[in-house]
Amino acid sequence: MKEKKQAQIANFNVVIGDDEKPMLDYFDTYIFPALTSDITRKETDTEYLLKEVEIATDKRNEYVVVGKIVKKTELEIKSDIDYAGKLIEKDEKHSSAPYSTFVIYLKNHRVVLVPNQKGSPSLASFRATIYYILFEYRRRYNENAKECDKLPVPEVKIVGIPSVRSIGEILDGVQKVNELVLRFYPLNGDIDFSGMFETLTTDLRKTVGAKKGETILKSPKNTQGIAKILSDANGTIEPILKVTTKEKAKLTLRDYQITERYDIEVDVKDGLKDENKTIIKETDGLKVIEYSNSQHEEIYERNKGKIIKFRPRV
Fold it and tell me: Distance of alpha carbon 238 from its chain centroid, rounded?
């Protein structure tokens, strides 16, 4: 039996050190060891951890990292309905571990995240967990490393990729956009083909020696223009929309809330490894996944040997 699930796609943007090296330059010494380190992020009574992380290939025979982000928690039950239909009191706790499957495309560093059920980790949780794991792994590694071998600081930005449609649907329920914030940061081999953000993301930032920056647009009125800008950016900037709804409520919308969702079908009888293959197959043909450029190609080919040695033996 097949079950419909919703996939979100983001730009898995990680650069390393002051010289902003692409993450694949450090894949064998930092990135993959960190992702497979079993480091756990704790948040109150909930734990987030990565499981089943391994190397696989897509339809183009290019390498991807597949795995599960697990949300380990306890469900507290204080009341229920009994067999007679009466409301009764209870005091029970049940362990729960909903997960989401992720696929990181190593050539163009797009990531697909597919929740398995209600309560599965979201794109925001995935981003926070990857950020924590990379920084905590570096801290632990550097405690015992020689000065010349210490890992540099990573810049981690996992930004959801919206579409004109997804942004348009959200802005249809908005009375006014009060502010559009565009945050920019070092890019991992991405090229801004529109030329719209190149001065901000590269030239201006490097001229003044800044890692990050932002530009703020007050009361933008052209919602179609907003949708086009954010769609064309393709995850290379982090947008924040401050809006007033038609019900007069003021909201702040972040990238993971305006990211496009894609319906895919997964056979619920498949094992976890077959589920990975199905997700790759279902999302491989999407334009946003196939997006690539000459810099992606050069970085990937130069570092392919660092990936191959982690591939499971068949």
Answer: 12
Strands (E), 17-98: 21-22, 41-43, 46-57, 63-81, 87-96
pLDDT at 235: 87
- Does the pTM exceed 0.85? yes
* pLDDT tens, position by position, 230-251: 888 888 889 999 999 989 999 9
Tokens matching residue 219: 């009361």
Tell whether the torsion through CA atoms of 198, 200, 202 and 207 is positive or negative: positive
**Whether 278 contacts 270, CB under 8 Å:** yes
What is the C-alpha separation between 247 and 257, in angstroms, rounded? 19
- Separation between Cα atoms, residue 46 and residue 64, nearest integer Å: 28
Residues 6+ positions from 31 with CB-CB distance below 8 Å: 14, 23, 24, 134
